[in-house]
Amino acid sequence: MSPPQTTLGQVTTKDYRGVAIHTYNAPEEGLYVASQIVETADGLVVFDAVFHVKHAEELANYIAGLGKPVNRIVLSHIHPDHWSGLGVLHARFPKAPIYAFPEIIAYIRKNGQKILDARNEAFGPVVAKTPTLPDHDLAVGEATIGGVRFEFERQPDGESDWQSIVRLPVAGVVMAFDLVFPPETHLFTVANYYDHWVEILRGLKGDAAKGYDTLMIGRGKPVGFDVIESNIAYLHKAKELHAANSTAESYAEALKGAYPGYYGGGWVDFSSLLLYKIINP
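^ Metallo-beta-lactamase domain-containing protein, sequence as received from the core. Prediction below:
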């Protein structure tokens, strides 16, 4: 069965050393948020659910068109642009368990409705009205699903309070989600975790020496490990500018001034409101 053509988002499909992975990217209005679909011997493992409901519906159509059961859905971190669409996926694939680390589930349980109320006000009625909670705790460590080996790592204090890193050793793939951003793109500095985020990125750089060659990221197509150094440099500059600026507006303008050619100036304005607690959470 051939998957349907997408008209809103874009899908990149590639064989990674015998493991087929489909990357669905929402369009610009959906912040280019990515969902990864890993094909296993007996089904699919889906990572993240995008932001806008209509893009989640297109993602669900694409998944259904692959003609394999969804064996599990995994949520990477606490930010709603990756879990707003979970309700759509759950409705389409009700037998698929939804996994996340316990800290991520607890965060969404506590803050999810407040977050969606605020995002509906900010973005309009394009995102979910109510949160869909993951129903299974994700465990740190190795798991073999449908013959594919996954390694799950939990990290605090990076791009968000809690996030996942997922390695597929046979495929040579590391799913870093929003811990890594594409080249010449503003990072989402929504919390004062600059130093530990850099530490996480330095750890990820070490994966290249272990035979990994592809990074799957939270928005945009897969990239190589060469982007990590520019992400680290950006975080050093952002930390410096945060220390020098007392308001969200001045911080955002300073960052945009430091990187005038970078994509995502509007992201900087919004993320700065979160960083300076104007929007909380």
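The mean pLDDT is 97.
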